[in-house]
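Sharing a chain and its predicted structure for anyone who wants a worked example. Both blocks are below, sequence first, tokens second.
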Amino acid sequence: EISGSCLRSVPGQHQFCVDYNEHRFSKKRTAHAVSCCNQPFNENLFNFNKLKDAEILLEVSISDDAECVSFSMENGSSLVVVNSSPLSESHILLLPSPKRCLNQRLTIDAVELGLSFITSCSDPDTRVVFNSLRAFASINHLHLHAYKCSTSLPIESAPVEHIVDCCYKLSDYPIPGFVFELQTDTVLLAKSVFTAVEVLQDQDIPHNMMITYGDPCAQTNTKEVPDPVLRVCLWPVKPSDQLPLDELLFRPAVCELSGHILLHDLDLFQTITEPQIVNTLKINAFEEKQFQEIVDSVKKKLTEEIDSS
């Protein structure tokens, strides 16, 4: 059940978008208890193999080069399914090979599925997102979300600094993170993104990811409005189970990190300010020194892969 489109732009530097949906949080499935980002899959808990047939919308097949994706009612190893607690009427789940019973840990196949889905939609309003364990993922069974939002989000125009190849870092944003830009094809983009993800996984660092369209990362001298490019945003964050919940005005999961703030309290929706949003996001952020250490590790691994290719 959707309470209807109720969006508000918050005045300020970042132009955050707040979204009121009273039903989403009450209908979310109970989150699995986890102690690390690589908690094993548990078949005794709820998982997406327990969905009813009526909840399966499409099956997905991707070609070997990840550039061609087809959607059908059969013969696909991955699934598009109904979301039981949607934030919009078009909010669905992408399940990469659910029969393999993978835990909520990104794989390169999952990144490729997300990229293939969003490019096949050819709709700038479509976003594909992922929350890792300990970064507000509810179900420990590999899945991504896809949804539409009719307004642009702050992360899509946030300024960046170049690190190496297609990898950048946010330079003036409340919570530090990486931005990867599509340069040639989605296969190479997926490899670069997953290289950074592996750095986080190896250090058991929770993380959130959004695939969207936004401004080109490279500066241009032209006054013309540039065509949007595919951006993959990746945030390393503090463990959600260690955050001071009494200080949080909202859950800083992937949508919120992008500037799309989901709220179920009408009074808060009507009154929340940019400083309040920024303060809540920063509670989830690494300090500058800690983030720079992650940047150095990601840069080192990406450089090694470029040199070896």
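Comments welcome. DSSP finds seven helices and 14 strands in the chain.
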